[in-house]
Amino acid sequence: MTAAPPAPAPTPFRLSAAQFGLIAVTTLMWGGFFLVIPLVTVHFVGDLKWAAASVGLVLGLRQLTQQGLTVFGGAWADRLGPRPLILAGCLIRTLGFGWMGFAGSLPELLAASVLAGIGGGLFDAPKSAAITAVTAPEHRPRMFSLISIAGNLGMVTGPLLGAWLIVLGFQRASLIAASAYVVAFVLLALTLPRLKPAQVPADTFSGLKVALHDRVFRNFTLVLCGYFLLSTQLNVAVTLRAVELAGPGATGPLYGLSAGLAVVLQYPLLRFTERHLRVRTVLVGAVLTVAVALGLMGLAQTFAQLLACVALYSLGTMLVFPMQQTLTARLAPEGLVGSYFGFSAISLGLGGAVGNFVGGALVDAGHRLDFHLLPWLTLLLVGLVTAAGLTRVLREIPTREQMEARQRQAG
């Protein structure tokens, strides 16, 4: 019996032009998005006195369109390659955001919002597939972490630019937001290679069918719905609690702290956990951290105490994204990475949609029953159940070392 050949030494992590381009356009995309979307409410409700419900419909339809199309965008990426879909998505979102500035009626604004959602649905999963294709498996957690940091950087700078640009008028602000996607288009056209699929699926949706029938991946995706129910509470229950404690101006420090911590700490925190813990351990621990932070928010009596809980909450959320993306890439068969990333969007779509409704309903019920801990204890319970479910599902997912060993044996 001969000994197995030693595993090859890992290559050092150095950003390629394609990786740098993907990081840069992520900041542009998130920055452009958060520049204009908060101003939609400010302009149409605050300035034009439209009903808040109508603007809520606009924003909800945009999210529904994007998340629904993301599932299919990943499948198309497996057939066409991610590059043309990302580029098309940038152009379509440019048109959608630009049109918003000229919308004078609700049907026009709805149409512009749907167009912006279509653009996002086209580039969302293909961008994750492109990141996977241009990054070695051992470097993917770090790369997805850098992508997340870039997104959070855009989330910080976008609203600040929007607040400054709104004095120029909503029309100009929306055009500047749209121009961010033009720059993203040019940058990716120059840096992202044509990534041809290694194996073209038999039909457009065959990859989605494989993902649907992959029991381990399907269970992994569905269990993560519980986490995304928790992650949306920054926009719902946490924001409402912050306003109760410190007034409407509390939203700025709330979002600034959450995104700012991710920009500063996410990469070094990921590097530390990567050296000492397995991906599955980090993911379960991060979900538990988010759950405990939400539970503690029910005990916060001052805004400073709430911000301390938000800091803990952010430490958990900044680790979940790179771990989820890494495991999705690990589970995806060759040639079906886009389909798997598209299918994984179900977690955010389902969990986010339910979370937005449940978070508000729990807060209302807590006030009605005079039991203000109700939402926070419920969210803590959801987090504990989600962590337990993840622990069980992750036992069936092979580690990176096991995957590498299988590849060496197959080779």
TrEMBL record:
Query: Where is the major localization of this protein?
Result: membrane
Limits of the Major facilitator superfamily (MFS) profile domain: 19-401
* GO MF entries: transmembrane transporter activity
Stated membrane topology is: Multi-pass membrane protein
Q: Which residues form a coiled coil?
A: none
The record's subcellular locations are: Cell membrane
Name the residues that span the membrane: 20-40, 109-125, 146-167, 173-195, 216-240, 252-270, 277-297, 303-323, 335-354, 374-394
Q: Does the keyword Transport apply?
A: yes
Superkingdom to which the source organism belongs: Bacteria
Q: Does the keyword Cell membrane apply?
A: yes
Tell me which UniProt keywords the record has, alphabetically. Answer: Cell membrane, Membrane, Transmembrane, Transmembrane helix, Transport
Q: Which InterPro entries match?
A: MFS, MFS_dom, MFS_trans_sf, MFS_Transporters
| CDD domains per the UniProt record, alphabetical | MFS_MdtH_MDR_like
Q: Name one GO cellular component term.
A: plasma membrane
Q: Name one Pfam family in it.
A: MFS_1
Task: Report the protein name in the record.
Answer: MFS transporter
Q: Which organism is it from?
A: Deinococcus wulumuqiensis
Taxon lineage? Bacteria, Thermotogati, Deinococcota, Deinococci, Deinococcales
